[in-house]
Design brief:
The chain is about 70% helix and about 0% strand. It has 13 helices and no strands.
Length: about 300
């Protein structure tokens, strides 16, 4: 037995065990930080219920959302119809549940289209710079010069009202936001030590971008995409309210609000419950995004 081991055994109290520092990965540390955020945990629980109801809408909704029952027109909330019925006797609760499915799918589709395009465009522009950077950023500036909702309305007006055209319109208007963020994050890491080291050993540019740049800019882009997910629901509801989104009788929150505006005093439940669905869903997504930002940013994690 070495002298250092004998000295350690002598100084250690009897029965005491040597404590070794625990090895916690960065992902585990971020997850623990997220779970300590009460707002984020509450948002996860609420979103789990909303997503579950949307996925299993065929079993959760008690009625067909498009089935007309004129004899039950404008029935107030009751044991038979929990959230009342609309002008055509359609069950509001069932339409809100199916509207959640449609809104979540649209937000997912918008993010799936705009996020990768903006990420690739901004990352390549920031890494290579020069003429590519100028062309990409000037194109993004042109798109950003128009108010988002007005540009989406113009695109839908040109393509025609409908679900698919609404998705494409919202996705096009969001590409510049992701591109500018990706470019800024890329510029912050382009001249980092590990990038210079990769260049010095002869790594090709595409390998540097994929293996070194992309992983180090993903965290802020994931957080931003989460926050924009809620905005996608709002944008789709706005287009539906204006008659440019999903067309009747498709159950959609914005369309439901548009159809109910003539009955605000006569049937309050037609505006209250779809509006609450939008508020609760978007608020939960924003709280989750804020929690992810705190969990993925080491500086904010230390402040908590």
């Amino acid at each position: 037995m070495s002298e250092a081991t004998l000295r350690e055994d002598t100084l250690r109290p009897s029965g005491a065990k040597l404590l070794r520092p625990s090895r916690i990965s960065e992902r585990q540390r971020a997850l623990l930080s997220l779970l300590r955020n009460k707002g984020a945990v509450a948002a996860i629980v609420v979103l789990a219920f909303i997503v579950g109801a949307a996925v299993f809408a065929n079993w959760v909704a008690p009625y067909n959302p498009v089935e007309v029952a004129v004899t039950e027109s404008l029935v107030a909330p009751s044991a038979r119809h929990w959230l009342g019925t609309d002008l055509y006797g359609r069950d509001t609760f069932s339409r809100v549940i199916y509207g959640a499915r449609l809104s979540l799918l649209v937000a997912l589709a918008v993010t799936a289209i705009s996020w990768p395009i903006g990420l690739v465009a901004g990352m390549l522009a920031g890494f290579f710079g020069g003429r590519l950077d100028s062309i990409v950023m000037r194109l993004m500036d042109i798109l950003l010069s128009f108010p988002t909702i007005l540009l989406a309305m113009a695109i839908v007006g040109a393509l025609g009202p409908g679900l698919l055209n609404s998705v494409l319109a919202i996705a096009v208007t969001w590409i510049p936001f992701y591109a500018r963020l990706a470019r800024g994050c890329t510029l912050s890491v382009r001249n980092a030590v590990y990038i210079e080291a990769a260049r010095s050993i002869g790594c090709p540019s595409r390998r540097i971008v994929v293996r070194h740049v992309l992983p180090n800019i993903m965290a802020p882009l994931i957080v931003y995409a989460t926050l924009r997910f809620g905005t996608a629901i709002l944008s789709f509801a706005a287009l539906g309210y204006l008659g440019l989104g999903a067309q009747p009788p498709t159950p959609e929150w914005g369309t439901m609000l548009r159809d109910a505006r003539e009955f605000i005093r006569l049937a309050w439940w037609l505006t209250v419950f779809p509006g609450l669905a939008i508020v609760i869903t978007v608020l939960s997504i924003n709280l989750l995004g804020d929690g992810l930002r705190s969990a993925l940013d080491p500086r904010l994690r230390l402040e908590r």
